[in-house]
Amino acid sequence: MHWMILPFKRFAEFSGRSRRMEYWMFALLGVIVAIVCYALILADMGPMILDAVNNPDSPPDSASFEGLGILSGIGGLALLIFGLASIIPSIAVTVRRLHDRNMSGWYYLGFIVLYLVTGVLFAPLALLLALGWIVLMALPGTAGPNNYGPDPKDPTNASVFE
What we know:
mainly alpha; 7 helices; about 65% helix; elongated
């Protein structure tokens, strides 16, 4: 649990380095929150989904959407709040993860621009870029100190995470 909330503790800290554990546990937290929120939304949409499955030829009418209630609102609101609250920590932990690989954080901006351009022009290339990014984030960091700070895995630098 410590690793999942560490990026929130280091909210807007774009300097230094982050271990793979910090990056991937934060990503796992995002997936867990999304699954729970979407489960709440879908639980509230059950009757509407069953109606669409039982009557595939008839388009949904406005009465079908009257079933959306408090669970959909809670799930959607929680998803929105978590998404907004995690934008800056997500960018910061990604930049620190690039620093751990001894790469500039500006590569992240370059990746986003390239991903958006290729996604519009040629979607399969965007998929390859995304897979390449996942591999890059999964690679181990530079052993020992680098241009961006001391090694976060070094036991003598325990104060890095305090």
